[in-house]
Structure formats: C-alpha cells, structure tokens
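Please, structure for the following, as tokens.
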Amino acid sequence: MLSERKKKILCAVVDSYIEKAEPVASKDIQAEYLSDCSSATIRNELSALESMGYLTQPHVSAGRIPSEKAFRFYVNELLYESNLSVEEAERIEQYLSHKVGSLEEVMTAVTHIIADITNYTSVVVKEDMSDTITAIKLLDLDNGKMLVVIVTDSRVLKDGMVDIPDDFDERMIAQAQHWLNKIFCGKHVSEFINFDYPFALVNGEFAQYNALFKKIIDVLKKVSLMNGMEVEMYGENKTLQHSEYTDVANARKFLAQMENKEKIAEILTNDGGADGSVTVKIGAEENAPEGCAVVTTRVSLGENVSGSIGVIGPVRMDYRKVLSVLDKISEIIIDLVGKGD
C-alpha cells in the first residue's frame, strides 16, 4: 500500500514522462509538482518506489523512468477528468456529423478523427452477430481431425479444426452433428456465442465425450466471432512519430504487430465488457502488443451488432487524452444509434 506522498510522486513521474519522454529527476518533481517537499525527501521516495518495481533508473546519475507497473497504477488511480479542449470536442462533433452514412463510413470516420486528435493508432472493430444459423456440419478429415462448419443465412464459417479421439466413429460424428443442429439452428450467432454449454444434454454413451463436445462448441464460437468481425485501422504512422519508435527495430516490430488484424481484433474484443465499458491493457503481460498500451470502449451499433473502439500506442501514452476522446466518440455514437442512424 503506497502512502499518499508516494502516490503523488509516482503520478508526477508518470505525468512528466508522458509529456517529455525523458527520465525524471527529483528536482523536476519538486519544481513542477511538489514544491512543498524537499528534494532529499523526493529522492528517498523515488528510491523506495524503484525498489518496489514502479520505477527504473537507466544510469546511476540519471532520473527515473516509470515501469509498466507504474503506468498500471497510474491508470487505476486516474481521476477521470476530460482534458479535451472545447475546440477538439467541437471538431469531433462536426467531423462525424458530416460523415454519417453507412456503418462502414462511420467506422472509417471514427478511426480518422481519433488518430488525428490523439496521434496514436486507432482501431474500430465491428462485431456483426445478426446472422441466423441454418446448419452445423462436422466433417471427418481422416487424419484425427474434424472440420467444424457453421452455415448461416448469409455465409459459411469454416475455419475451425478439432482433434477427435480414435474411437469417435462416423456414426458418432453424425449423431453429434444432429445434436448440435437441434440446439442451434434458427438461433442468431450472437445467441450461440453467449451460449453456456449444457453438459446435462449429453448423456448415455456420449457422456465420456463431454470434453470433446465442449471443445467443438468453443471452436465454433471462436469461428463465429472472428468471421463476424470487420476491422478498420488508421494512424500507424502517427504512432511511429513517438520517441519509442525512432529505433528502426522497434518501428518494424510495431508495424508487424499491426499487420495481424485478427490478433488486434481479438485484443480489442476479448474484454468481457458490456456496452459503455472501458478497458486499458498495458504491455504484453496484459495481452497488449509488446511495448504498447491498448485502450478500448464498447458501444452498441444496433441489434446483435456491437463495436469496440480502441487506441493503440506506446505504454507512455497520454491516457487522459485518449480516455477523453473515446468517451466523446462513444457519446456521439450512442446518440446516433438512439436516433436510428
């Protein structure tokens, strides 16, 4: 548990590092944030915070740099106060008011305005789960694997593969397929993805295959989710303007991570959040791209259609600005959806 003074000093270090991207010295904190504390007191507290894993010191004579642990503390402690200027808020409203058309056009507009104001990479993921399931197919590939396919009223989803036991013969596959169709045909994909597996429905000779049935359903859910996503991304070049990416190797690594749209979509949507929820992931340990932070918010885009709006940038991200922008964008989209646009 950090004392109030340690909290103030730690947040001051993070604020300064976000602004200047330079190691923070005790004299800087005293001059700019805590004039009522002596430089010696601040040095002692910085040393304690370093021993606790919140700060690092690149050189003995250098100032401190916040760790990912420090940024996580900072975000958790952040008292959310919008720091959008009136001009920025009006710019967002005016920009989107001229871009209202199809959902795809709105997604593109949202990514552009977010990236332009935050100077980070923006991502919008649309999850359209309004399709109705018309059939589920299980295809034995004769190599110990089975292809699981969902047919809906508008497409075929067939990227799922499951290992099957040696004694799971064609008759069992046919019965399993019949069982799955009986439960899921006629349901929206959204109902299927939120389905809680009913172990009680599998009994008798199939009881020993409970784990396999659950695996099939989990694969089908993943296939349905990924196939129902559309990803719009903009502003990778803006992120590269930050000092973390002056190193060519870091820039290449970032761009390579951004190319994996499926992984980015998974990161943005795998939060378990409801509409309006905000999620902040910092660093690879929290499933963000390595060296990056990801801030997302969920919005409803209509019946059985939801969206995740996100910002990806270095861990040294201006979280106040990003949260303010996403809050404003979310407010506008909620208003548009409420009007039936």
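The mean pLDDT is 84. The CA atoms of residues 297 and 327 lie 8 Å apart.
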